[in-house]
């Protein structure tokens, strides 16, 4: 079945979007970071948890069964973590947003996509016969409500839940001192949830695996990462595989390598070394499921779509840092388990941009996501040469003079 790409894409709505860290999301957490200007703008243009709940339930009610909303789990503070499911096809996509609570634009883009996918047009119905899409629009609601990066769980809470860790050092991704992005973690400690994933989806925390490190697996000690894992495993049980996993993040202010052009967003397909290579020997057991070529093709779908708009705000797309070894991220763990993976890193931070730029960035995310969904649905993703991914320009921290 051939789907008309531009017609479906043009039905997407637009809301606000924005940005995150002064260094890459996956940079070492204790690395010195350049000064950024926070709270120049409020976050009122974004979606809070109450608004998310209301919007999802309204979409479900109006969709005549197309959108199915469920509570997949709760945050540490007891806020519901939702999934919104559309489609009945056997090609499965899991799209996750706001695992860092100050990276809010993906949530807006997801809600816009859900509105478009629930329009019950003939074309949309045909598309949804090919794919099943599960959105997790706000993975870390505690952090979202506080506009911070980390969750609200303490190390004492972890030890209460896992007594076997009573003698272990706190995990490396736990912050309980200092100020990060104008947030006082001494008074409000918490974990970077996106380092709490493990390629072994049945992993049980063991004291000898702590404190761990950036290039080592996580532990599934936070309720937020557990919820994502449980959704992923349930889809594996239902379909045999989760074909695509997309994670929506933000980064700092970057430039297209070799230019002075600010990056609209960075993409990436690579979070662990190839398990069949010497560099990836630690992951050899996943060699049969890891599919880097498919991940590269998925990233090309988004890149090519945004490039198709010519010289505009949408064309400044580059590759996020390559050569990464981050099995503790959702992207790394799910890639090893057989999913094609795509990272979206929108520039900036929620407090740094005005409404106009939020809208421009949001539209970029929506168009990239819609291209991935459609390319998987109609099979055109298989026609792309994975090696073309290597021609996408890299992201640079400083502009070229």
From TrEMBL:
PROSITE patterns: PEPTIDASE_M14
Signal peptide start-end: 1-27
Domain Peptidase M14: 37-401
Coiled-coil stretches: none
Name of a matching Pfam family: Peptidase_M14
GO molecular-function term, one example from the UniProt record: carboxypeptidase activity
Highest taxon of the lineage: Bacteria
Cofactor dependency: Zn(2+)
Keyword flag Signal: yes
Keyword annotations: Carboxypeptidase, Hydrolase, Metalloprotease, Protease, Signal, Zinc
Similarity remark: Belongs to the peptidase M14 family.
Protein name (record): M14 family zinc carboxypeptidase
């Amino acid at each position: 079945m051939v789907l008309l790409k531009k017609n479906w894409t043009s039905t997407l709505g637009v809301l606000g979007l924005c940005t995150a860290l002064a260094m890459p999301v996956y940079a070492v957490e204790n690395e010195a970071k350049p000064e950024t200007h926070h709270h120049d703008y409020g976050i009122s243009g974004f979606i809070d948890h109450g608004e998310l709940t209301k919007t999802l339930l309204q979409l479900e009610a109006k969709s005549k069964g197309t959108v199915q909303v469920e509570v997949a789990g709760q945050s540490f503070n007891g806020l519901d973590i939702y999934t919104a499911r559309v489609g009945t096809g056997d090609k499965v996509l899991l799209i996750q947003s706001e695992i860092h609570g100050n990276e809010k634009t993906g949530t807006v883009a997801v809600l816009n996509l859900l509105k478009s996918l629930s329009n019950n047009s003939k074309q949309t119905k045909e598309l949804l016969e090919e794919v099943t899409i599960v959105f997790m629009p706000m993975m870390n609601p505690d952090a979202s409500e506080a506009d911070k990066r980390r969750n609200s769980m303490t190390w004492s809470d972890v030890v209460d839940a896992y007594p076997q860790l009573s003698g272990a050092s706190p995990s490396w991704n736990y912050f309980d001192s200092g100020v990060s992005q104008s947030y006082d973690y001494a008074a409000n400690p918490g974990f970077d949830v996106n380092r709490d994933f493990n390629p072994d989806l049945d992993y049980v925390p063991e004291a000898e695996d702590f404190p761990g490190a950036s290039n080592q697996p996580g532990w599934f000690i936070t309720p937020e990462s557990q919820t994502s894992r449980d959704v992923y495993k349930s889809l594996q049980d239902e379909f045999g595989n989760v074909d695509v996993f997309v994670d929506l993040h933000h980064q700092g202010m970057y430039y297209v390598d070799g230019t002075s052009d600010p990056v609209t967003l960075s993409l990436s397909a690579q979070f662990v070394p190839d398990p069949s290579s010497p560099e990836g020997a630690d992951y050899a057991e996943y060699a049969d499921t890891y599919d880097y070529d498919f991940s590269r093709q998925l990233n090309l779908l988004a890149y090519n779509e945004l490039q198709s708009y010519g010289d505009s705000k949408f064309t400044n797309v580059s590759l996020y840092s390559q050569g990464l070894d981050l099995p503790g991220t959702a992207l790394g763990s799910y890639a090893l388990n057989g999913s094609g993976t795509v990272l979206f890193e929108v520039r900036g931070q929620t407090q740094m941009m005005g409404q106009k730029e939020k809208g421009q960035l949001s539209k970029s995310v929506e168009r990239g996501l819609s291209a991935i969904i459609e390319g998987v649905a109609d099979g055109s993703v298989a026609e792309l040469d994975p090696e073309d991914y290597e021609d996408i320009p890299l992201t640079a921290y400083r502009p070229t003079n």
